[in-house]
Amino acid sequence: MKPELDEGARFRRFEIFWLREIQRLLLIAIPLVALVVGFDVPGRLGTPMLQEQFLGVMLILLLTSVFIGMPAARGASRRKLPWYDAILSLLGLLVGGYLVLYYPRIVNEIGELTADKVILGWIALVLVMEACRRMTGWVLLIIAAVFLLYAHYSHLFPGMLNARGISWSKIVVHLYIDPNSLLGIPLTIVSTIVVAFILFGQVLFASGGGDFFTNIATALLGRFRGGAAKMSVVSSALFGTISGSPVANVVMTGSVSIPLMKKTGYQPHVAGAVESVASTGGQLMPPVMGAAAFVMAEFLHLPYAEVALAALLPALLYYLALFVQVDLEAGKMGITRVPAEEIPPLVKVLKDGWIFIFPIALIVYLLFFLNLDAAKAAYFAAALALPASYLRRESRIGLRKLLVILEQTGLAMLEVGIVCAMAGIVIGVLTLTGLAFTFTLFVDMLGSTNLFLILVMTGFVSLILGMGMPTTAVYVIVALTLAPALTKLGIQPIAAHLFVFYYAMLSMITPPICIAAFAGAALAGANAMRTGYTSTRLGIIAYLVPFVFIFDPLLLFQGSALLIALATVTAAAGTVVIGIAMAGYFVRPIGWLNRLLLVAGGVALLIPPGGQIPHSWVINAVGAAVSLLFVVSEWRGRKSRAAVGQARTAS
Questions:
Q1: What pLDDT, on the 0 to 100 scale, is given for residue 420?
Q2: Of 42, 172, 227, 282, which one is least surrounded by beta carbons within 10 A?
Q3: What is the C-alpha to C-alpha distance for residues 256 and 233, in angstroms, rounded to an integer?
Q4: pLDDT at 97
Q5: pLDDT (average), residues 355-371
């Protein structure tokens, strides 16, 4: 198994041996350091580390790995290390090393603006911003720069935004050493929990878990109409349990599912959209969600298992809506099953891959039943997967393969790690300036007149920010600025944060910049924008459900068991009805008027009956009546057409 450090020709692959080995060692060290500290090995050996010292080590590894491996521009050499990147790497070592060596002293003088802190603070700020530009582009960098400029020039702003400007020295020192800034929650979560789950996913993939998920989905669903698309939905949902990256999911599962969908009759843009929507849902799918979910648990001071449980039903509705639409799309286009020769026998698939069920089951058991720390649960599951891989000759993970797994884990950590470091800087500005309180006050003023308008604005801001930024960064910014305002208006904190999380995630499939849809379009050879619009249609339920659980959190398992059960049934029915309307087909093509009526009926069914929304029973009854009348009418129409056809045949 050969490491692919050039992932899409982005990363350098050096001709010089010792440079190549330094690059590999830095990447391998990222998960190893996290693992060692995660089990408190330094403390057991009598040399305990402060959390900030550990983050200093991770900062060294992340910054030096980015500047050694990631060129400054597209046209730069992928084979040589420029002198300026060598200097930037050494500066990364300097700013991180200072934290590692001197943070016990810094704790006692955290308010002092000494020259060394100011100089190193400036260097750290520039390094993180440049690393972020290289990894994710200009959007997040510009947003962070706007926050920084506000912190210094806030005295020039009018109205509620007017405040006393803060000196640059105080700003950079606060951002560099304060545990609520660069060394805050986002970098802590990614350096402890996220890295553990990335490692678990890499171990599972390396031992053949990815093939098992694809094969079991094909074996179960390939023999039904539209089986290729249904296989894509299920396999991507399964991938979502171990990977929270939409684009990575599209590339991994789409390389198999998209050609198969096209081969069986799906149009290229539909095939690309199905895969992108299915893969994006991985961030919503417990037990392992995207990195933002772990940050959310920390913000809410809740066990991760509680966040995952709350996200479960909306995630299932998301995939149900997608499943219904791909089935009806197959009926509309006359698409049949996957070719029989490409469907593996279910017994053989289970016989070859049953070992992969146990690591997933272990994670669920440790998280949801024993309430174990999330990072340790992932490490234990990875530890189980390693010996399990030896049950099949072709999946065995030896030392060389293990080193490649560690290297790939480090590589996968670079983008999310740097993004979380930048998110920490934004958090630092918000805490230093009190800007988050200003946003809360502003939204509180608007919300007193129209809560729905505030929700629309929050969703719109999340979508706009997400067009060019990773989900985690969008979530952090909006969660700190707008989510507190929503909770102040009486909305449950977990509902407010999941609302933000959903709309941050939806930017992946919402035009004009929908990265996951673009990746699906590239694999399908389809028009990117057409794929994006189709992705929006297929993922429609994710735009609606957040508004429902904001007004009534029964869909988040917040309430009595009976009401939650009723809400689940009606929401599932509403999801199916909305899926029919979006597909424009049931037993025959549906006109626009009927589709609009079905959308209205489906949305009415999404409202949890007996909950907090006034007249919910009446709304549900109206939605059920509209939906039922349509189904009965279409079914009778089908029977009458069949009878007419038989009469013509007989005559």
A1: 86
A2: 42
A3: 12
A4: 96
A5: 84
- In this predicted structure, the answer to whether residue 196 has a pLDDT above a threshold of 70 is yes
How far is it, in rounded angstroms, from Cα 33 to Cα 406?
A: 11
532 neighbors 274 (Cβ within 8 angstroms): no
Cα gap 385→400, rounded to integer Å: 16
Overall residue count recorded for the chain in this entry: 651
Q: Tell me phi and psi for residue 610, to 5 degrees.
A: 75, 10
The span from the CA of 519 to the CA of 249, in Å, is: 10
In terms of average pLDDT, the best of 102-111, 514-523, 536-545 is 536-545
Query: Using H for helix, E for strand and C for coil, what is the string for 25-71?
Result: HHHHHHHHHHHHHHCCHHHHCCCCCCHHHHHHHHHHHHHHHHHHHCC
CB crowding 474-501: b at 16 or more within 10 Å, else e: bbbbbbbbbbbbbbebebbbbbbbbbbb
**Taking the mean position of all CA atoms in its chain, how far away is CA 532?**
18
**Locate tokens 């509309």: which residue?**
332
CA gyration radius, the chain: 26
Look at the block and give the residue holding tokens 């918000």: 430
Burial class (CB in 10 A: 0-12, 13-18, 19+), 615: exposed
Asked if 532 contacts 512 with a C-beta cutoff of 8 angstroms, the reply is yes
Distance from C-alpha of 534 to C-alpha of 408, rounded to nearest angstrom: 33
pLDDT of 322 higher than 50: yes
Residue 243, pLDDT > 60, answer no
Where do runs of H (alpha helix) occur along 354-470?
357-364, 374-388, 399-433, 435-447, 451-466
Bridge partners (DSSP) of residue 585 are 589
Q: Yes or no: say if 552 and 608 are a contact pair by the CB < 8 Å rule.
A: yes
pLDDT of residue 7 exceeding 50, the answer is: no
Amino acid residing at 72: A
| Model confidence at 550: pLDDT above 90 | yes
Q: What is the DSSP letter of 526?
A: -
* Residue 386 CB burial class (10 angstroms; 0-12, 13-18, ≥19): middle
> How many CB atoms lie under 10 A from the CB of residue 91?
18
Indicate if the pLDDT at residue 172 is higher than 60: yes
Other Cβ atoms closer than 10 A to 634: 16
